[in-house]
Amino acid sequence: MKLTQTILARFAALTLFAAPVFAQGAEPAKTEGATPSFDDARGTVRRQLDESIQEINRLREEITAERLPLNRRLSEVEAELGRARTESQQVSRSLNAGTLAMTNAKSELTKLQEQERYLSGLLSDYVRKFDSALHIAELKRYAEVISAAQLAPENKNLDSQAIFRTQVGLVTASLGRLEEALGGARYEGSAVDGLGVVRQGAFVQVGPVVLFRSADGSTVGTVDERLGSQEPTVFPFFDAEDLADASALCVNGQGRFTLDPTMGNAHKMAQTEETLWEHIIKGGPVMWPILGLAAAALIVVLYKWAYLAMQRTPSKAQLDEVLAAVGQGDINAVREKVANLRGPVGQMLAIGAEHIREPRELIEEAMYESVLTSKQKLLGMLPFVAISASSAPLLGLLGTVTGIINTFTRITVFGSGDVKSLSGGISEALITTEWGLIVAIPALLLHAFLTRKARGIIGQMESAAVAFVNELSRSKLEKPAAHKAPERKPTPAKV
Predict the structure, then answer these.
(1) DSSP code for 312
(2) Tens digit of pLDDT for each residue in 279-314?
(3) Which are the contacts of 430, defined by CB distance < 8 A and separation ≥ 6?
(4) Comparing 117-131, 322-336, 413-427, which segment has the lowest mean pLDDT?
(5) What is the DSSP secondary structure assignment for residue 258, as one 8-state letter?
(6) Looking at the DSSP assignment, which residues form a beta bridge with residue 209?
(7) Alpha-carbon gap, residue 180 to 140, rounded angstroms
(8) Between helices 38-130 and 2-32, what is the axis angle to 10°?
(9) What phi, psi does 201 have (nearest 5°)?
(10) CA quadruple 38, 39, 40, 41: dihedral sign
(11) Which value, to the nearest 10 degrees, does the dihedral of the CA atoms of residues 473, 476, 480, 485 take?
(12) Entry pTM
């Protein structure tokens, strides 16, 4: 650009210089009156032209001499510009890549933070629920690591990584516990025996079953939780073989032991078994009148059963023989046949035969009196059995009420959280009701049976009496009454 300006300036100067030359050459002719020569003018012009050409050539040479450095400089500047553009593009790409990487890093950081919060929640929930999945015998074993994991989030001196490591330590301990559960684990500890004494010894855990043996070997059994106690409780074995196997397993850490498919529930149920006397004692003071009533009712039932069983009843053939003798009017035969009969029916017919020559009304009254006497003996004492059947459930209900009262009294004192303290009143309430029904149901059935048997004998007596009197009326032995008395028939007993 600078070179071009130089060339144009020189060309303009040359033009301005040539114009005065023409003017100077023409001016003398005017002043002197002479005509200028064409050759002079041509020579002047040529000379000026040559000078201009030389000047142009010189300028061209200068331009040519200056063009090469300028081209090289231009090339260098263009190359430098290309490198600058390349660097700019690289920087721009790097900046874009950095921005993208930063955005991705922020997104990844957000995801990691969410994962951290999620894992932290899972760990906290696992730590909170871990002790509930442990057997009561394992609580002391893992108490330290559980306490550290539970208190770590509340410790202001610990950062998130330290809290995470503490909680992961509990997870590691739980994994170790699972590995031990596959082949069993043996560890030392203390447990409470059946007498409430804390004993030191060794635990052996095989899956969900935990065995315990005291250091002196006096207590061996399964371990479980007892309501109202924070200590593991030992339920001892009573079978000699189970006792020996469990003791050897706790001492040696290996051995043979009978598999319990009920996961120890059978052994727990065995601990709840009780004798009849223990069951009665749990019923409380109301059990004694219930048992006394049951014993009295049983004595009456046995006595009445034996008494009714000893009552002989004549067969239909024997009764037919007596009635045939009455119909024939043979008094001696009647008395002989009646003398062979036993039981209330025989006694009643004997009275009728004794008064056979008396009027019919007198015979009926005499036989009816015998029926009433026998009825009183046959049905006597049976109402006591009915009273026992009715009173036993009421006594059971009384025991239920007293047991519930005791239960609410204990709730007032101990609260409703201690179930063990309430079991006495509940047992008293249920056991008395149970025994009240146990006494009432058999007493009711036996009363119905004995009453039916007694009324059957009374009904046979009444049937025999009616048949005897009717047959006597048809025979020649009936003596007419001195005065007509109102006819009175034996009242039949209700069956």
Answers:
(1) -
(2) 788 778 888 999 999 999 999 999 999 988 888 878
(3) 400, 403
(4) 413-427
(5) -
(6) 206
(7) 17
(8) 160
(9) -175, -155
(10) positive
(11) -10
(12) 0.51
- State both tokens at 246: 């469990």
Which amino acid belongs to residue 418? D
State the Cα torsion 100-102-103-108 to the nearest 10°: 120
- Which amino acid appears at position 469 of this protein? V
User: Among residues 310, 378, 373, which one has the least CA distance to residue 342?
Assistant: 310
If you ran DSSP here, which 8-state letter would residue 209 be given?
E
Phi and psi at residue 192, in whole multiples of 5°? Answer: -100, 130
How many angstroms separate the CA atoms of 25 and 40, rounded?
9
Query: What span, in angstroms and rounded, lies between the C-alpha atoms of 359 and 252?
Result: 102
Determine phi and psi for 208, rounding to 5 degrees: -85, -5
Query: In whole angstroms, what is the distance from residue 223 CA to residue 235 CA?
Result: 6
Which two structure tokens, joined as six digits, stand for 481?
A: 């009454």
Which DSSP symbol is given to 215?
A: T
Q: Are 490 and 370 in contact (CB under 8 A)?
A: no
Q: Tell me the DSSP string of 439-467.
A: HHHHHHHHHHHHHHHHHHHHHHHHHHHHH
**Cα(375)–Cα(42) distance, integer angstroms:** 193
**pLDDT for the residue numbered 301:** 92
Residue 14's nearest CA partner among 41, 40, 45, 36 is: 45
Calculated CA dihedral for residues 212, 213, 214, 215, nearest 10 degrees = -130
Q: Name the token pair of 233.
A: 């409780």
| 175, 169 Cβ separation under 8 angstroms | no
* Residue indicated by tokens 């024939």: 328
In this predicted model, what pLDDT tens digit does every residue of 345-385 receive, in sequence order?
A: 878 888 887 777 777 788 788 888 888 888 888 888 889 99
